[in-house]
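Translate structure to sequence.
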């Protein structure tokens, strides 16, 4: 249980800790100061410490020396944020240039400022920068897609297949014969149609039972994708690999995931070979209000 101490002499009863702790209601205002009345319900989001204007709250899991005051002089403007959003594109052609591992560590570190459900902070990563290992994963992905497609065509196995690869997936596989042929012939030509010869592949993973593991991993990924642009790096999410690794124990074994963890997302990273000059239009999302 979190140890929460309130310095009554410093507390100005502003009520911010009460307001920000709006799910677990750990704090209540007394006549003298705020009081931590339900510390057992604290889920360690730390917002009370981050917000307290007089540093009156001492939470043992967030010592103040680990919580620097955030300077805000160069928050990006809306224009530069918008430009950043539009500049990021999925890159599918990479220079044959290695990416320093320190840069990847920095990117992963930037990913952790993304939100996670109940502040679980449980996204971890596996990195591949050995071209032979990346090639093995690429080849394995194509092989497994071909194998699944073969099973989907087999009239006996076809009925039971949805149990293993999910409803609708068998039909998708049967309808994707053109795509599967292209993947296979690209592989036969020595190309990498999965990771596009990216020098880095990152796989994000979370504890198996984490109900929001995918969401957590996706938020972290998008932080990292945007940050990658500031390093001159390009990225591409590889859903193909994710689909296969989720369904294939062979592929799962190949990535050496720690016990009790599930893969949630895969990203290819490298220095892009090309620059995109133009922003493309996007569909405007529908936005009805107060619907029933
Ligand atoms: C969930 C998801 C899965 C994706 N999987 C792949 C993939 O397997 N291979 C690929 O080349 N691109 C993949 N992409 C990239 C999309 O094709 C791309 O984001 C989309 O075409 C829009 O282009 P942009 O990222 O350049 O804006 C994926 C993107 C998302 C969000």
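Result:
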């Amino acid at each position: 249980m979190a140890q929460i101490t309130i310095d009554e002499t410093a507390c100005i009863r502003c009520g911010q800790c009460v307001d920000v702790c709006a799910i677990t209601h750990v704090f209540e205002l007394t006549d003298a100061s705020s009081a931590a009345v339900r510390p057992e319900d604290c889920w360690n989001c730390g917002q009370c410490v981050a917000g307290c204007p007089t540093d009156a709250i001492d939470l043992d899991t967030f010592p103040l020396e680990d919580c620097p005051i955030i300077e805000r002089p160069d928050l990006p403007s809306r224009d530069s944020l918008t430009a950043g959003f539009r500049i990021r594109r999925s890159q599918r052609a990479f220079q044959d240039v290695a990416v320093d591992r320190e840069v990847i560590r920095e990117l992963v570190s930037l990913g952790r400022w993304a939100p996670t459900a109940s502040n679980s902070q449980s996204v971890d990563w596996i990195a591949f920068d050995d071209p032979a290992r990346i090639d093995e994963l690429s080849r394995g992905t194509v092989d497994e897609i071909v194998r699944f497609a073969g099973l989907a065509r087999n009239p006996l196995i076809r009925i039971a297949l949805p149990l293993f690869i999910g409803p609708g997936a068998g039909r998708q596989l049967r309808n994707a014969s053109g795509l599967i042929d292209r993947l296979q012939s690209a592989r036969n030509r020595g190309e990498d149609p999965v990771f596009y010869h990216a020098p880095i592949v990152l796989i994000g993973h979370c504890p198996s039972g984490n109900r929001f593991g995918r969401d957590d991993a996706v938020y972290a990924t998008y932080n990292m994708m945007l940050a990658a642009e500031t390093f001159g790096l390009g990225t591409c999410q590889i859903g193909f690999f994710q689909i296969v690794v989720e369904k294939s124990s062979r592929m799962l074994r190949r990535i050496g995931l720690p016990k009790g963890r599930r893969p949630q997302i895969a990203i290819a990273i490298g220095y892009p070979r090309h620059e995109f000059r133009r922003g493309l239009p996007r569909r405007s999302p529908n936005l009805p209000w107060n619907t029933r």
